[in-house]
């Protein structure tokens, strides 16, 4: 359905272009609207002006930042609570018959795994509750139990050899996703993402989702590059689920009279019209009409199977003006936008279609492949 929607937008825009540039005609906005309706589209024609850019910037600034409830969470400092699956090393000094610290391998062999019931067994102390206790609390409890068995002033140490009870899960476009254990050192979201590694060129850095306590938060990781970002203040909590989507839907389709018609895929928050045109090699100098730069933006709530006419905004840039490229540099693209560059000296409708149909096929094929 996505490719049909994009195809419909492009074909509609081609119809508009043919009407606008027929010699001897002067097309008003009303004329364009009427011709668009004949092609099964409902459009809003918007010239790209400084006022439009100001509205775009105001919309970006009004987007919510990192939610306060995420920034306000702080994990316990140096007070890790033991849980089921953790491996503990219990040392009773001057009593080698109870512990043999030795090498790392020996320590692992002598480690006490906290059972699913939250308990451990230790000689002379018996079954002791460990889950929900800090290492210091468990140390005190073991010392008390051993003292009751005749060990005078037992010197007990408890160390977590392997953390397994608290973890977060990373999925999506990470190089090393999966389960990540949390330890006694608080871990931030930024640290976890950096450690897991992002698949370069394939991840949508503006769409990371953090699921916590039944709620989902969409977080713009690309904001790390911005001054004053608070993203580094988000600490992870046991049970968090982090998903980084792929950028397979963050595409802009460039068709018409450019050097290299193509699909531009991007992974960050912002992509400007100027960058899109640059990726496509710029306007074709021999065949393009510089005043015929259009951005066709469909209604994201509408699908190709929806009843009624296609709905779209068509942003128009007159690129022959000296200020045009300054405007193009600031005009922000959105996923699934279609950038269409019209040809010069159009004389007949059938010639127009024959020139642009290959570009429309590029969009249709690319959209189908990207599904």
Ordered list of secondary-structure elements with their pairings:
Elements (H helix, E strand, L loop, with lengths): L1 H19 L8 H10 L2 E7 L2 H13 L5 H5 L14 E6 L11 H6 L2 E2 L5 E4 L3 E4 L5 H14 L7 E7 L4 E6 L5 E4 L7 H8 L11 E5 L2 E5 L21 E4 L6 E6 L5 E4 L7 H7 L8 E11 L11 E8 L6 H7 L7 E6 L5 H21 L2
Helix pairs in contact: 1-10
Overall description:
This protein has helices at 2-20, 29-38, 50-62, 68-72, 104-109, 135-148, 189-196, 273-279, 324-330, 349-369; strands at residues 41-47, 87-92, 112-113, 119-122, 126-129, 156-162, 167-172, 178-181, 208-212, 215-219, 241-244, 251-256, 262-265, 288-298, 310-317, 338-343. The protein has 371 residues and is of the alpha+beta class. It has 3 domains: 2-63 and 249-369, Outer membrane lipoprotein wza fold like, CATH 3.10.560.10; 68-76 and 165-244, Roll (Outer membrane lipoprotein wza fold like), CATH 3.10.560.10; 87-161, wza like fold (2-Layer Sandwich). A 6-stranded mixed β-sheet has the order 1-15-14-16-12-13, sandwiched between helices. Helix 1 (2-20) runs antiparallel to helix 10.
Low-confidence stretches: 1-9, 11-28, 346-371
Write down the overall geometry. Answer: rod-shaped
Secondary structure tally: strands: 16
**What is the SS-derived class?**
alpha+beta
Helix content: 25-40%
Q: What order do the strands of the largest sheet run in, or round the barrel if closed?
A: 1-15-14-16-12-13
How much of the sequence lies in strands comes to 15-25%
Termini distance?
9 Å
What is the number of independent domains? 3
Q: How would you name the CATH homologous superfamily of the largest domain?
A: Outer membrane lipoprotein wza domain like
Number of helices: 10
Task: Sketch the major β-sheet.
Answer: 6 strands, mixed
Order of helices and strands: HHEHHEHEEEHEEEHEEEEEHEEHEH
Secondary-structure arrangement, i.e. CATH architecture of the largest domain = Roll
Supply Rg: 31 Å
Domain SLBB: 166-243, 250-341
Keywords: Cell outer membrane, Ion transport, Lipoprotein, Membrane, Palmitate, Polysaccharide transport, Porin, Signal, Sugar transport, Transmembrane, Transmembrane beta strand, Transport
Domain Outer-membrane lipoprotein Wza C-terminal: 346-363
Domain Polysaccharide export protein N-terminal: 75-160
